[in-house]
Write a structure and sequence with these properties.
The complex is a heterotetramer of chains A (104), B (620), C (501) and D (505).
Chain A: H1 6-26, H2 30-54, H3 61-91
Helix pairs in contact in A: 1-2, 2-3
Chain B: H1 6-25, H2 29-53, E1 57-66, E2 69-77, H3 79-102, H4 109-128, H5 132-150, H6 157-188, H7 193-201, H8 207-224, H9 233-236, H10 242-251, H11 255-263, H12 265-269, H13 272-295, H14 299-319, H15 323-351, H16 369-381, H17 387-401, H18 405-430, H19 446-461, E3 466-467, E4 471-472, H20 473-479, H21 495-516, H22 524-528, H23 530-537, H24 542-590, H25 595-617
Antiparallel strand pairs in B: 1-2, 3-4
Helix pairs in contact in B: 1-2, 1-4, 2-3, 2-4, 3-4, 3-10, 3-15, 3-19, 4-5, 5-6, 6-8, 8-11, 8-13, 10-15, 11-14, 11-15, 13-14, 13-18, 14-15, 14-17, 14-18, 15-16, 15-17, 15-19, 15-20, 16-18, 16-19, 17-18, 17-21, 18-21
Chain C: H1 5-22, H2 28-54, E1 64-70, E2 83-88, H3 92-111, H4 119-138, H5 142-163, H6 168-197, H7 202-209, H8 222-239, H9 247-255, H10 258-283, H11 285-311, H12 316-337, H13 340-371, H14 382-385, H15 387-400, H16 407-422, H17 424-449, H18 468-483, H19 486-496
Antiparallel strand pairs in C: 1-2
The chains are: A mainly alpha (104), B mainly alpha (620), C mainly alpha (501), D mainly alpha (505).
């Protein structure tokens, strides 16, 4: 384990975060957007876990934080999907670019 | 004399009373006005008589406190204003009386008397003022009185225009006076005449400053006295009822300019340039107006130009250091010119026209008016033994004695013209055959002829208070105790008197030839120099020049400013609101309803912030 | 120390507001009556104060002070730091302004009898406006001043926007935004002063800002002071108004109901002058001195600009609007002279123009009520059908163009007297304005009163019953001041003394 | 952790939270088991009562000194108390509004859900204001967020509502992720999630790379949290969501949620970044980066007001207005002056009353026709002068006109911005300029209310239900009271919270 430097984990997290962000900001399908958001949150989790193990001041709290993040992310996505469902019932679409009745 | 301040209050009372109750009194208003001006007259005479034996009296009270400055109001009785008081109140009283007949039947009769009261009050107040500030105050008030009376027939557009013109032209002069007086105040520390004189004589004021301020003050006089180039309002002012012309535009208010210069004489005398300016303007005006008078056909306008011309004479006198001559002519002119105007009024009253070309042969029909008019004409023409002769002679002598030979000869020529056009007027109105059909030509009532008779007598005899033959009582008295005013009598060569007499007789003879005997064609001159005639007949196009320069320039400036207003001021506002609106539009456009755009904006914002942070913090 | 007299005075219209709120809104007579009556207590109290001052009462005895606000707790440093007290007081100048305000308010309330609808709301707002105006002149600290200042803004907005003429809403907005900006700038100045010194009391600030005893929390550099002063000039310049910040005021003059313009032109514009004298001169005397030339130049520009533009207007209200700009130039000229004569002239002009413009606008109201137009080419010959009103109109114009014997002359004269001492050439240019004033006023007034009627106006009546009161009172005061200026100069003695020199 | 330790905690400190929690549970159960025909307004009143009870409990705790339980994850300091009070008062008022809310599509069927979701949201906000640990902070934040997502989408059959909720979720999640990413770095550098410990750790930091990383974290946290404030750059969701959500929800979002956002922002920023020394070793990072916050504040104010000018939909307009208000509050935050807490608290107090008052009237006016165009307000003065005048009061207060609480609030913020050295002249000027711009649209509403006649010409009286009446009266009274006698609030602040000195303690 010692072979892998902390920066690699951090870079991975950063890349993951960016991929997630990119997905969340560009994908038309709302489901994919939600999944991309999950990616971003998971990037956070990687960061937290990395720091909790290899950080300057390692501590367990990082991992605890991760647990909370996972739980909350689940709730968030659940709510997101629920809302998407009701939107789909009304609008018959899951495309983000068609959600544009509210603007200006 | 301690109660001289009451004199102006009588007419003021008349004004206020008639303003409030005039409507109920109807034509009985006249009695209120007449009685109250009579009171003024009586009191003025008492004051004059008192002044003959006593010294100058002056009283003042605090008026306005400005920090440490204390401005006062009060009154002063000296030789000059004691004399003026009598002249003003006398003419005013006579005009009040005359108007009762002249204005009979006018629906605004009480208003007319109220205005007369206001004017008389202001004029008497002006005369009594012991300082420049107070003089200025009343100076403006007489202007208002004049304005109201000129515009008395307010429904006539010409009257409206004339009133406006009179007010504005004189106001141009007034501003000069205001500036001059304020400058003088900061130089001498006072508005009081005696203090200003003391300061000037003590040499506390620099020469340029004296010249500047006295010329500025003279500008005020130019405006008020209808001197060139601010004279154009005075002929137009004839739109007012004729008694008003007699009172204001012949005898009193227009003489106020002369009075002002006379009052400020010690200051003027301290600057040669100022004196020369006064003299030149006076002489130019005298001849200039006289030439215009030659061509006019409106009876009142002829008289108006003659007034301008005569006022020029007075200015010339003052400018030529002939203090006494100027004041003397002021007095005699007041009488004979008022007489002429009242007589003219009587003529107009009879024939209901002002155009002399339509008159003629009235001598027989107007038994009183005609001889009185003749007396006035003789007096103004400078025919020996009448008042105008003596005073005009004094002026010519003063001009000669002062070395202003050019101005002297100008004055002589003007005198010739005066005699000519006055007799032209007389002959055309009273002799020959009637040139149009008159109905009900009748002599005016006694209330009108009475005052004319009084003035007629004065026009004959008033010259005798100051003659080289019987003694210069007036002159000696006027300059008594005040060396700055010069001598009571200036000696001049005897031939001047002869020249003056010859010139006036020549003028009369020429008029006789042309208009009475008709041995000389009336268009003898006109046909030979039509251009000159046309220029003169059009009053040298002064009005037109003003119209196309000053008035036009004012309009141009106004339009230019409107342009600024519309494009710069409003444009500024519009551009600011435009920017705000534009920003709003932009912001709203950005809000395109796309959820991911929102996130992108946030992310880009974040990225930019981090980038700037990195750059400024030196981390990259 | 605490007399509550001023509070009573300032807030006395509140009683009227409450009573009006309880009245049914259809009771026209009652509402109008109450509206007029409600302005009387303030007038009576103000006049009482004036006469008791003439009778020798010390103005300081009117002041009152109550703790009001305290931002955070700095008592460890200084007990009064960052406190704002409710403090009212008057000096000679504000005494005059209060008398003017209350009198004009009563007269404008009478003029408001011409209002045609919604009397209840109208009079309630009107009285609120009066509170604001009275408060502005009595406030002893800047925040209180500002609050009252803004209180005048809101009722004015509604009064213009609801009871005005055709373009009323635009005018109301224009008023609001310009004045909003002006007061915004004012607020910045106030808050900077407050933040730097910990107080907004005017008297204390006068000492503190000029490096007197006591010390400010943070040093104020000269450039900061200059900046603040310029900001103040702009803030009050909007109100006054100074060219080129004036366009709102034209709209208000034209679109607002004349009774409101009486107050607007009579009092509200004067708040600008009041502020400049009180704060500009009081708190920043050195900066004022430095910029005096600029102020005088602005004054001359205002004077001439207003005059020339008034000359080509076709609407009588527009003429009066530009004439207000022109006349406010005289205030600036007086201030720019910044010597005793100039400042006193400026103050005189403030009062005098208040009376004169109120008179003229009242007559506009009278005229408009009868003929529904103020376009000069449609009017004419009113001296025949309405001789009395025309007479007063002429008198008002005469007063406005500075006829001696009326108040306008005294102020104009003093302002120029002051300026000629300091900057004679500029003053001479400004004197052109005196001529132009006569030109445009006569042009306008004569075209209404003289000449022939351009149109038949049937059944026009001259002044009637209640219309006499404002006209007589105003012209009376105008002449009183013109003839016996000591009524104004006496209370000003202490204020003017020591200015400049 | 055994029971004994658990019992040794002073659970009393959490009394208000517990009350809300219990009420939530009870409401949930009641909504489940009560027969359908029972009017769910009952639940609303119960919820309202619970909030009142929580306020009472909090008042009882006001005198408590600084206390913390659960290993300093929950702290009850002056800051928490002061802002919790605002949250509770705001919520109580919103609840009253919600009880009276009836729209065409009706919240009726989900009314029960509304109340308990509302309470959970409130609970989250309260936890946020009391938390002393990043984890609790995060949990509180998400409790609030998730509840509000659902609240926004509560009108299930309404497309706008769906759409707004969807937008809200997506943006909210992104913001959460960004915040968390930033927080993860903070944790990485300090090795702790406890704010106090983190602060202690950061004091000794000197490595410039770490400082750089902290700087980046600063921006991530700030931008992430700006979602809750609805400030630039994360403001764009607000207009859409405000428009789409039911009026009481909008009110909740614009008041309670916004206050919570500021609470967490201040908590995190001041606790953590005020301790990070910049490289020169003296200026803390928070102060060194003031210009950035100031810039964002300026843009927020300008943008909010400028775009609001173009709005015809009243709720959208208020969304932009609330963005602008967030900008004003950020000015106070930027200045970091001695009076920052006071000014933010007071401004929020004023904001609670003026904004909710305005929303109460908006709800009344728009409820009946369903249209939210500002022309609905035309002729309100004719229909109901009293409503019109109170609307006037709220609008004037929002515009910052003297005599209202909004003015004093702005005054306070100015004072703060100008009393620090160097003074924020530019920021203060922009703020005041933006205020003037806001006059345009605020007075636009007023001109509808007072100047225009009703569109239809009919002048039907507006019926005002009890709850709304109470809200309007309370809000109007408070708006004027705190405008005229602000010392009441200041005294309250100064006696109970002692300058918030225990914030860092």
């Amino acid at each position: 384990m010692n072979g892998v430097p902390i920066s690699a984990f951090l870079a991975l997290a950063l890349i993951l975060f960016c991929i997630g962000l990119y997905g969340a900001l560009t994908k038309r399908n709302t489901i994919i957007v939600l999944i991309s958001i999950e990616l971003m949150l998971n990037a956070v989790n990687i960061n937290l876990v990395t720091f909790s193990k290899f950080g300057m001041v390692p501590s367990i709290t990082g991992q605890i934080f991760t647990v909370f993040v996972i739980a909350v992310a689940a709730a968030e996505v659940a709510v997101g999907i629920a809302i998407l469902l009701s939107l789909y019932r009304n609008r018959r679409t899951v495309n983000t670019d068609e959600m544009n009745t509210l603007k200006n | 004399m301690e109660n001289a301040w009451l004199i102006p209050l009588f007419p003021l009372l008349s004004f206020l009373f008639l303003l409030l109750f005039g409507k109920k009194l109807k034509e009985a208003s006249a009695y209120v006005g007449i009685l109250l001006t009579l009171a003024s007259l009586v009191y003025s005479v008492i004051v004059l008589v008192g002044r003959l034996t006593n010294d100058t009296y002056k009283a003042e009270a605090d008026w306005l406190q400005i920090g440490n400055l204390q401005l006062t109001v009060g009154f002063e009785v000296n030789q000059l204003n004691a004399l003026m008081l009598v002249i003003v109140s006398l003419v005013s009283f006579l005009v009040h009386t005359y108007s009762k007949g002249y204005m009979h039947g006018d629906e605004r009769f009480p208003v007319f008397y109220a205005y007369l009261g206001l004017f008389t009050f202001a004029m008497l107040g002006l005369v009594l003022s012991p300082n420049l500030l107070q003089t200025y105050i009343f100076w403006e008030l007489v202007g208002v009185g004049s304005f109201l009376l000129i515009g008395f027939y307010f429904h006539k557009d010409s009257a409206k225009a004339a009133a406006k013109k009179a007010f504005i032209m004189t106001r141009i002069g007034d501003v000069g006076l205001l500036i001059g007086m304020i400058l003088l105040f900061w130089q001498t520390g006072s508005f009081e005449y005696d203090e200003i004189f003391a300061s000037v004589q003590a040499g506390e004021v620099s020469g340029t400053m004296i010249t500047l301020t006295s010329i500025l003050i003279f500008v005020g006089a130019v405006g008020k006295s209808g001197q060139f180039p601010l004279h154009t309002w005075l002929p137009d002012a004839m739109e007012g009822p004729t008694p008003v012309s007699a009172l204001i535009h012949a005898a009193t208010m227009v003489a106020a300019g002369v009075y002002l210069v006379a009052t400020m004489f010690p200051v003027f005398a301290a600057s040669e340039t100022a004196m020369a300016t006064v003299a030149i303007v006076g002489a130019v005006t005298a001849i200039f107006a006289a030439t215009i008078g030659l061509t006019q056909t409106d009876i009142k306008r002829v008289l108006a130009y003659s007034t301008v011309s005569q006022l020029g004479y007075m200015m010339l006198a003052l400018g030529a250091a002939g203090y006494v001559a100027g004041v003397f002519h002021l007095m005699t002119h007041a009488f004979f010119k008022a007489l002429l105007f009242l007589a003219a009024g009587s003529v107009i009253h009879a024939v209901h026209t002002q155009d002399i070309e339509k008159m003629g042969g009235l001598w027989k029909r107007l038994k009183f008016t005609a001889p009185l008019f003749l007396i006035g004409t003789l007096a103004i023409s400078g025919v020996p033994l009448l008042s105008g002769f003596f005073s005009k002679d004094e002026i010519l002598i003063a001009a000669w004695a002062n070395g202003n030979y050019v101005l002297f000869w100008l004055a002589v020529i003007a005198a010739f013209f005066t005699a000519f056009y006055m007799f032209r007027l007389f002959f055309m109105v009273f002799t020959g055959k009637p040139r149009s059909e008159y109905k009900n030509v009748h002599e005016s009532p006694a209330s009108m002829t009475g005052p004319m008779v009084v003035l007629g007598i004065l026009a004959v005899i008033s010259g005798y208070v100051n003659t080289p033959w019987f003694g210069t009582f007036l002159g000696d008295w006027l300059v008594e105790g005040n060396e700055a005013l010069g001598h009571g009598h200036i000696e001049g060569p005897a031939w001047i008197m002869i020249v003056a007499t010859l010139v006036s007789l020549a003028g009369i003879y020429l008029a006789y030839l042309m208009y009475m005997k008709r041995s000389l064609a009336q268009d003898w001159f006109t046909s030979r120099a039509p251009t000159v005639y046309s220029i003169v007949n059009n009053k040298y196009f002064i009005d037109e020049i003003y119209q196309s320069t000053i008035v036009y320039a004012t309009k141009a400036v106004s339009l230019f400013l409107r342009f600024i207003e519309l494009f710069l001021v409003e444009g500024l506002v519009k551009s600011v609101t435009g920017i705000v609106q534009g920003l709003g539009k932009l912001g709203a456009k950005l809000q395109n309803g796309q959820v991911q755009a929102y996130g992108t904006v946030a992310f880009v914002g974040l990225a930019v912030l981090m980038l700037i942070f990195a750059l400024t913090g030196g981390y990259l | 120390m605490n007399s509550y007299y001023l509070s009573l005075l300032v807030f006395s219209p509140l009683l009227g507001i409450v009573l009006l709120a309880l009245m049914p809104k259809s009771n026209e007579k009652g509402l109008k009556m109450l509206g007029v009556l409600a302005t009387l207590p303030a007038t009576i109290l103000a006049l009482l104060a004036y006469f008791s001052y003439l009778g020798g009462k010390d103005l300081a005895s009117f002041s009152e002070q109550v703790n009001w606000m305290r931002f955070s707790d700095f008592s460890a440093i200084h007990a009064n730091l960052f406190t704002v007290k409710y403090e009212l007081g008057i000096d000679g100048f504000s005494l005059l302004m209060i008398v003017l305000t209350s009198v004009l308010a009563t007269l404008a309330a009478i003029a408001s009898l011409h209002i045609k609808n919604e009397w209840k709301g109208y009079y309630m707002l009107f009285l609120l406006l009066e509170i604001g105006m009275l408060g502005v002149f009595t406030a002893q600290n800047l925040i209180l001043f500002f609050i009252f200042f803004e209180i005048t803004l809101i009722p004015m907005f509604f009064l213009i926007g609801k009871w005005g003429y055709f373009n009323k809403e635009k005018a109301a907005y224009s008023f609001l935004i310009y004045n909003g900006l002006g007061s915004a700038i004012l607020l910045i100045v106030i808050m900077v002063l407050f933040a730097k010194t910990g107080t907004t009391n005017i008297e204390t600030l006068k000492v503190l800002v000029n490096g007197g005893e006591g010390q400010t929390l943070a040093a104020m550099s000269e450039s900061l002071k200059m900046g603040l002063f310029i900001a103040l000039l702009i803030a009050f310049g909007v109100k006054l108004p100074i060219f080129p910040l004036h366009s709102w005021m034209l709209r208000v003059h034209v679109e607002a109901p004349p009774s409101i313009v009486m107050l607007h032109s009579g009092i509200l514009l004067k708040i600008g002058a009041f502020g400049l004298i009180r704060f500009g001169m009081g708190i920043f005397p050195e900066q004022f001195e430095t910029l005096a030339v600029l102020i005088a130049i602005l004054g001359v520009i205002n004077l001439l600009y207003g005059a020339f533009l008034a000359f080509i207007q076709t609407d009588f209200k527009m003429v009066l609007a530009y004439s207000s700009i022109s006349h406010m130039g005289i205030v600036l000229i007086g201030l720019g002279a910044s010597n005793e004569a100039g400042v006193q002239g400026a103050i005189f002009q403030v009062v005098s123009h208040g009376l004169i413009s109120a008179l003229l606008f009242f007559l506009v109201s009278v005229l408009y009520e009868r003929v529904q137009t103020t376009q000069m080419n449609e009017l004419g010959g009113f001296a025949k059908s309405m001789p009395i009103a025309s007479g007063f109109l002429l008198a008002g114009a005469m007063a406005s163009l500075g006829l001696p014997g009326m108040s306008g002359f005294v102020s104009e004269f003093m302002a120029f007297l002051g300026l000629f001492k300091e900057m004679p050439i500029l003053a001479a240019i400004g004197a052109l304005g005196i001529i132009m004033t006569a030109v445009y006023l006569l042009r306008a007034v004569l075209s209404i009163t003289y000449g022939q009627a351009n149109r038949e106006y049937a059944g026009i009546r001259d002044l009637r019953s209640f219309e006499w009161a404002p006209v007589l009172v105003l012209i009376g005061l105008i002449i009183l001041i013109g003839v016996y200026p000591a009524v104004l100069s006496q209370p000003l003695e202490n204020i003017v003394l020591g200015i400049g020199g | 952790m055994d029971l004994e330790t658990l019992l040794s905690f002073d659970w009393g400190l959490m009394a208000p939270e517990f009350i809300i929690l219990i009420a939530t549970v009870i409401l949930t159960l009641l909504d489940l088991f009560l027969p359908k025909k029972v009017d769910r307004k009952l639940l609303g009143w119960l919820g309202f009562a619970s909030v009142l009870l929580a306020i009472a409990a909090l008042t009882g705790l006001l005198d408590n000194p600084l206390g913390s339980i659960l290993h300093d994850t929950f702290r009850l300091d002056a800051f928490a108390k002061a802002f919790k009070l605002l949250l509770l008062v705001g919520s109580a008022l919103v609840l009253l509004l919600a009880i009276d809310y009836e729209s065409k599509e009706g919240l009726t069927e989900y009314r029960g859900e509304f109340y308990y979701l509302f309470l959970t949201g409130l609970l989250g906000a309260m936890i946020m204001s009391s938390s002393g640990d990043l984890i609790t902070l995060f949990v509180g934040l998400e409790t609030l967020s998730i509840s509000s997502y659902i609240l926004a989408g509560l009108r299930k059959k309404n497309l706008k509502s769906n759409e707004s909720a969807m937008k809200y979720v997506i943006n909210g999640s992104i913001s959460t992720a960004i915040t968390l990413f930033g927080m993860s770095y903070l944790y990485g550098i300090t090795g702790s999630t406890n704010l106090k410990e983190m602060s202690d750790m950061l004091m000794s930091i000197s490595d410039s790379q770490h400082i750089y990383l902290l700087g980046l974290a600063f921006f991530m946290v700030f931008v992430g949290l700006s979602f809750k404030l609805a400030s630039v750059p994360f403001h764009m969701w607000a207009p859409d969501v405000y428009e789409g959500a039911a009026t009481p929800v909008t009110a909740f979002l614009s008041v309670v949620s916004k206050i919570a956002g500021f609470v967490i922002l201040i908590r995190v920023m001041v606790s953590i970044f005020a301790s990070v020394p910049m490289e020169d070793g003296t200026t803390p990072m928070l102060f060194a980066l003031q210009d950035f916050i100031g810039f964002l504040a300026a843009v927020t104010m300008i943008l909010g007001n400028v775009v609001a000018l173009r709005q015809r939909n009243i709720k959208r307009m208020f969304a932009y207005s609330s963005i602008a208000h967030a900008g004003y509050l950020l000015v106070a935050f930027t200045a970091m002056s001695y009076v920052m807490f006071d000014s933010i608290w007071f401004y929020m107090l004023a904001y609670v009353f003026m904004n909710l008052g305005a929303f109460a009237i908006i709800q009344l006016v728009t409820m009946k026709t369903g249209s939210e165009d500002i022309s609905e307000f035309a002729g309100l003065y004719r229909r109901s002068p009293i409503l019109a005048v109170t609307m006037g009061v709220f609008i004037l207060s929002l515009a910052g006109i003297p005599g209202t609480a909004g003015f004093i609030g702005k005054l306070n913020i100015f004072l703060g911005a100008l009393m620090v050295n160097p003074s924020h002249y530019v920021l203060a000027s922009i703020m005041i300029g933006a205020t003037v711009i806001s006059y345009f649209y605020y007075f636009g509403i007023l001109s509808q209310v007072f100047f225009r006649p009703t569109a239809t010409g009919e002048e039907t009286k507006v019926k005002v239900p009890v709850g709304t009446t109470v809200v309007i009266i309370l809000c109007a009274a408070a708006t004027i009271l705190f405008g005229v006698m602000p010392q009441l609030a200041f005294d309250f602040l100064q006696t109970n919270f002692e300058q918030f000195i225990d914030f860092m303690g």
